[in-house]
Amino acid sequence: MINSEVAKLICLIEKWIKLLRHYHGDNEWVTWLEKDVQYLRDSDFYGIEHLRSAFGGMGSITDFALVGERGAWFSRMRARFINKRYSCLVSRVYDLADRLFREHVRKNGCT
């Protein structure tokens, strides 16, 4: 049975996948996140490790902007709003995954 925090993480990742697909179709990040969801559904801790490895460094998922901020003033403001909400979702995913990772390490002594 999946713990409630892992279920919450799965739900957040699925929202993330839906946004990525809506704005960019299927891409490498959608595939990456879908793998993580499958690992988590299978109660495989590697899903959290794999997810965390997508963050940080050049070319990471955090370098990815959901919507380009160009065009008329209204379009730029709308894009900024969408990107801000997207950024908040990405941060929530990372924060929860990182907390689950740290709890696991604390309980088990290693990964």
**Share of helix among residues?**
over 70%
Main sheet properties: none
Beta strands, count: 0
Task: Name the overall outline.
Answer: elongated
- SS field, number of helical segments: 4
Strand coverage percent: under 5%
What is the assembly state of the chains in this entry? single chain
What is the domain total for the residues?
1
Distance between the termini: 21 Å
- Kindly report the average pLDDT value: 90
Provide a compact summary of the structure.
The chain is mainly α and 111 residues long. Helices cover 70% and strands 0% of the residues.
Task: Give the topology.
Elements: H1 4-24, H2 28-41, H3 46-52, H4 73-108
Helix pairs in contact: 1-2, 1-4, 2-3, 3-4
Detailed description of the structure:
The longest helix is centred in the C-terminal third of the chain and has 36 residues, at about 75-110. This protein has one domain (about 5-110). It is built from four helices and no strands. It is elongated and about 55 Å long. With about 110 residues, it is an all-alpha fold. Helix 1 (about 5-25) packs antiparallel against helix 4, helix 2 runs antiparallel to helix 3 (about 45-50) and helix 3 crosses helix 4. The relative contact order is 0.14.
Throw out a few tags for this protein.
111 residues; 70% helix
